[in-house]
Amino acid sequence: MTPSELSRRELLQAGAAALVSGGLLLREASAQARPRVSRAPKSIIFMVSDGMSMGVPTMAEPFSHMARGKGTQWFRLLQDPEAVVGLFETSSLDSLVTDSSAASSAWGSGSRVFNGAVNVLPDGTKLTPLAHVMRRAGKKIGLVTTTTITHATPAGFAASHRSRDDEHIIAEQYLGVVDVLMGGGRRFFDPEQRSDKRDLIAEYRRKGYTLWEKREQVRGRERPEKVLGLFYNGHVPYTIDHQNTPQLWEQVPTLAEMARTALEILSRSPKGFLLQIEGGRVDHAAHSNDAAALLWDQLAFDDAIAVAVDFVRRHPDTLLVITSDHGNSNPGLNGMGEEYRDSTKCLERIAQAKGSYVAIQDLLKKAGTPTPDKVREAVHEVTGIEITREEADIIAGVASGKPAPTLNRAHANLAGILGEVLSNYNGVAWTMMSHTSDWTLVTALGAGKEMFAGIQPHKEAFHRMLRLTGISFRNPEMTPEQAKRYLARAPRVRAVHWV
Ligand SMILES: [Zn+2]
After folding, report:
1. C-alpha 238 – ligand 1 centre gap (Å)
2. Distance 99 CA to ligand 1 centre (A)
C-alpha cells in the first residue's frame, strides 16, 4: 500500500472512531490520564511471554536457581527501582478470556476485536496495525518468536486479517512491512508447502530480504538490512527438547540469540525501531499442562529479557515493555506434604526432566501398544519420576484410545491426565487447559516507562506507544454492545486455540 492510500484510509477510520459511543470515549479519556514522562523513546522493544500466568515467573525464579544456579533477570528487574511495574486487563470484544490474536490486536491497533481475528472488527473493518503506523514515522520493524512467525502474537503487530488461522495470508502481509523476521513457520512461505504454490521466499528475496535457516547465521557476522529467518517448519521446538537434542541445538537459534541479532540490525535505523519478541511456547506448554516444558521456555524468554535490558542500558532512548497476553491454566506450586515441606523438593524434581510431553509421546509411539509398564518407563526416562502402577494404567488406557476418566472435563485427555498424575510428584497443578482472564504482569524500563505503571486495559498500550513516539493516529473501535449483533456470524474457532 502506498502512503497516500494509507492516509486516506486513516482519515476514514478516524471518522468512524468519532462514532463510537460517548460513554466509551469518556471512560477512555480517564484511563488516559497522563503520567509525567521523563523522556520520549526513539525505539520500542515489546516482549511477550505468551500465556504466562503469574505463577510462571513465580516458579521460574527458584526453578532457575535449582536448574542452572542463577536467578532470573525478570525477578532482578522487578526489584530494580528503575523499573516500572503494572498490570494489563486483557478481555477481548467477545469474551472475558482473550486469545492471543485479540490480545495482540489490542496492543497492535488500540481496538478490541473478536477472539480469532487479527486487527479486523466484526463488521469487516480492517484496522491499521502498529507496524504500519510506525513505518510511516520512519521506524524499522522486527518480529522475533519461537512460534511460527505468522502466529497470532507477531501477526497482531503487523497484519490485518479476519482469521488468525490463515497464516499463509499473514505471511504475505509482512512483505515490505517487517524488516527483520525470525522464528518458525517455513511452511507458510515455501511454495512446495503452500496450497497456492506461491513462492513467497523468492518474493521476499526479490524485495531485498536475506533468507536465514541456520543458527550459525544468527550467531555469525553478517548483518543484512532485511532478514527472513525461518528456522523450523512449524513452531520452534520446546526449549527443553531443543537443548537436549544435539541436532536441534545445532540448527535452531535460541530466542535470546534471535533477539540480540535483531537488535543489532534494527539499531542501525536512524529513526529507531519497533521490535516484538515473543516467547510463544510458554503458552503451548501451559495448554499441555507440561511443567518442565513451561519453565524451560520461560527461562529462554528470561535470557532474551537479559539481552533487551542490556540493550536499554546502553541505549536509554529505548522503551522496553515486558508482559504477557493472558494467563493460561494458571499453574502454581502447591503446598505438598506435611507442613508443605515437600513443595521445594517437588519443584526440584522438575529440574531433572530431560524432555517435554512430546518426548514422552515419541517414546510411547516407538514402543508400540502403550502398556502400563511402557508408560512407566517412558515417563521415568523423560521426567525422572516414578509413577504408580495404577496411574500408569490410566495413562496407558487413554494413550490407547480409551475414554479418559472425567471429573474436570477439560482434563479428560492424555496431556490433561499426565499433568494430573505428575502433579502428585512435582506439586504443580493446573486449573484447566485453556486461557484465563487473569490480569497480566507488566514491567517497563527506559524512555517512557512511566506510561506503563498501574493497571490499564491492554489496548491502551497502543495509544501510549504512539503518544510517546509523537504519532497522532486512532483506529475505529466497537463496543461489546455494538459487536453483539455480529456474534452469530463470527467464524467458528477451535475450542482450544493453540495460541
Ligand atoms: Zn494459547
Report:
1. 15
2. 6
